[in-house]
Structures are given as structure tokens and as C-alpha cells.
UniProtKB/TrEMBL annotation:
<dbReference type="InterPro" id="IPR050487">
    <property type="entry name" value="FtsQ_DivIB"/>
</dbReference>
<feature type="domain" description="POTRA">
    <location>
        <begin position="91"/>
        <end position="162"/>
    </location>
</feature>
<dbReference type="InterPro" id="IPR013685">
    <property type="entry name" value="POTRA_FtsQ_type"/>
</dbReference>
<dbReference type="InterPro" id="IPR026580">
    <property type="entry name" value="DivIB"/>
</dbReference>
<keyword id="KW-0472">Membrane</keyword>
<dbReference type="Pfam" id="PF08478">
    <property type="entry name" value="POTRA_1"/>
</dbReference>
<keyword id="KW-1133">Transmembrane helix</keyword>
<comment type="function">
    <text>Cell division protein that may be involved in stabilizing or promoting the assembly of the division complex.</text>
</comment>
<dbReference type="GO" id="GO:0032153">
    <property type="term" value="C:cell division site"/>
</dbReference>
<comment type="similarity">
    <text>Belongs to the FtsQ/DivIB family. DivIB subfamily.</text>
</comment>
<keyword id="KW-0132">Cell division</keyword>
<keyword id="KW-0812">Transmembrane</keyword>
<dbReference type="InterPro" id="IPR034746">
    <property type="entry name" value="POTRA"/>
</dbReference>
<dbReference type="Pfam" id="PF03799">
    <property type="entry name" value="FtsQ_DivIB_C"/>
</dbReference>
<feature type="transmembrane region" description="Helical">
    <location>
        <begin position="67"/>
        <end position="87"/>
    </location>
</feature>
<dbReference type="InterPro" id="IPR005548">
    <property type="entry name" value="Cell_div_FtsQ/DivIB_C"/>
</dbReference>
<dbReference type="GO" id="GO:0043093">
    <property type="term" value="P:FtsZ-dependent cytokinesis"/>
</dbReference>
């Protein structure tokens, strides 16, 4: 009898357990159905929202395409206009004015710089620094070069020169000695220049040092120098022989040329006859033929 009661209790427990499981499954099913119902209800609203946004999206896309098309058309138009500009006269240099030259001719300056009428103005504009550097390297007589584009078609060139302060006579040719010590090869005839002639120099460094010394001499003295000759001896390896336009000769070391030539005017005024002014050691003079030079 007790055994039967136990079986009944066990069946009751199992039944209750199954009931709870069934209830839980039923609840889950209801939740799924509710979720499906909500999704179906939300779909029309979602579709309606998309329908409202669609015209705006189309308008935005149209505006974007219109903007891109505008950029392409604008770029193409600029390229066409620039190409037309290049083939018209207004793109080319019409006039070049040169300022500051005293010894150099406009033809020489134009050739050295390389800017000429008919060149594209924008090419000059974007290459000013390059043209200035090229000119300085191409011609040592340029002390400075400044190129400016003035207006749509005009160019000005402002220069400063290293002056030609003498002529170098070498192998029947004349070269220009510049105030910065450089030597300039020239094609034109320079013998008409009223300036000293340098001769007898075998060392470029000695010649350059002499030229730099000459540049320091006051014009009142240097304008009376007709020739500067390197005239070394065993006892005087750095001696110069200078011929003056007043008929005197000067002996002086090239390393002290500028300093010692300051004494020349005072000594020359005391000389009664042409002779030699010796400025190698001290400063004195003597008539020609009275002393072995």
C-alpha cells in the first residue's frame, strides 16, 4: 500500500514538471509571435521613411554630379584659355629696358642674360632667379643682376658692373682686367680704353693680387698709370715696374702697391727731370741713368 502511494506521488511530480515545461514553451512561442507581429507592423513605417528620404538622396546625388561636372568644365576651359594665351602676342615680351650699365653694351648684357624680346613672359617670371644666377656665372663683369617683370609684357634688367680697370696683353691679344680681380675674355677691341696695360705676368694669382691692389689706388693716381709690368729679379721676386704718363717709372712690390703709391704724388712734384721712383724699400727717386735699376 505504501508502495502505491509512492508511485502516485512520483507521477504527480512528473506531471507538474511537464506542465511547467509546456508553459515555458508556450510562453516562448507567444513571444516569437509578438516579435513577428511587431516586425510586420514596423515594415510599412520603415518603407514610408525610406520613401520620404529617397527624393532628398536623389537631389543630393544630382547636386554632387553637377558639382563634379562644373569642376571638369572649369578645368578644361582654363586649359583651353591658357593654350590660346600662349599662341597670342600678349604672352610674349614686348620690351626690355636695361639700367646701370656703364662699360657693358646692351647687346652684351642681353646675350649674357639670355632674356630677349619674343620670349614667353611667364617663362621669365618663373625663372628669374635661375636667369640671374646664369648671368652671374656667364659673365664675370656682372657684380649684380636683377630681373623684374613690369606689367603684362615688359621686363627691366638692373645691373651693377665690376669695372674694367686695365687691359692684359698676352700673345697679341687683349683681355679685360676687372675690379674684382677676375679676367674677362672679350671679342671687341679694347685698346681705345684709357686704362693701364698689364704685361709680363706668368702667375694668375700674382696678376689677380696686383689688380686688386690697383683698385685701391685713388683715381687721381691710377689715371696716370699707363702700364703695369711684372719685372721680377733674383733679388726682387715680387717687383713691379710701372710706367707713368708723366714719363716717370715706379719700382714697387705688388703686395704693397696700393699703400706705397700714396707717396708718389709728393715725390713726383719734387723731381726736376723724369726718372725712377723707388718704392720697394722706403721712398726715393733718382734721374734715369744715374743708378742701376
Amino acid at each position: 500500500m505504501a508502495k502505491d502511494d509512492d508511485l502516485k506521488d512520483s507521477d504527480l511530480v512528473n506531471h507538474n514538471s511537464r506542465s511547467k515545461t509546456d508553459q515555458h514553451s508556450y510562453k516562448e512561442r507567444l513571444d516569437e509571435l509578438e516579435l513577428i507581429r511587431r516586425k510586420k507592423k514596423a515594415e510599412p513605417q520603415k518603407n514610408q521613411a525610406i520613401s520620404k528620404k529617397l527624393p532628398k538622396l536623389k537631389k543630393q546625388r544630382f547636386n554632387a554630379n553637377k558639382f563634379r561636372a562644373g569642376i571638369l568644365i572649369g578645368t578644361f576651359s582654363i586649359v583651353i584659355l591658357f593654350m590660346l594665351y600662349l599662341v597670342t602676342p600678349i604672352s610674349k615680351i614686348n620690351d626690355i629696358k636695361i639700367y646701370g650699365n656703364q662699360q657693358m653694351s646692351t647687346a652684351e648684357i642681353g646675350k649674357s642674360i639670355g632674356v630677349k624680346k619674343g620670349d614667353l613672359i611667364f617663362k621669365v617670371w618663373f625663372n628669374i632667379a635661375k636667369e640671374e644666377t646664369h648671368a652671374m656665372k656667364n659673365n664675370p663683369q656682372f657684380k649684380s643682376v636683377r630681373i623684374n617683370v613690369v606689367g603684362p609684357r615688359n621686363v627691366t634688367i638692373q645691373i651693377k658692373e665690376n669695372k674694367i680697370i686695365g687691359l692684359i696683353h698676352e700673345q697679341n691679344h687683349y683681355y679685360a682686367a676687372l675690379s674684382n680681380g677676375e679676367i674677362k675674355k672679350v671679342n671687341q677691341q679694347l685698346t681705345d680704353y684709357d686704362m693701364p696695360i698689364y704685361s709680363g705676368f706668368k702667375s694668375d694669382s700674382v696678376l689677380k693680387a696686383t689688380i686688386l691692389q690697383m683698385e685701391k689706388i685713388p683715381t687721381s693716381i691710377s689715371q696716370n698709370i699707363s702700364e703695369v709690368k711684372f719685372d721680377q729679379t733674383n733679388k726682387a721676386p715680387d717687383r713691379l715696374l710701372i710706367y707713368m704718363s708723366d714719363g716717370n717709372e715706379v719700382l714697387v712690390k705688388y703686395t704693397k702697391l696700393a699703400k706705397m703709391m700714396d707717396y708718389y704724388p709728393g715725390i713726383a712734384t719734387q723731381m726736376t727731370t723724369p726718372g725712377v721712383v723707388d718704392l720697394q724699400v722706403g721712398a726715393y727717386s733718382y734721374p734715369y741713368g744715374t743708378k742701376d735699376e
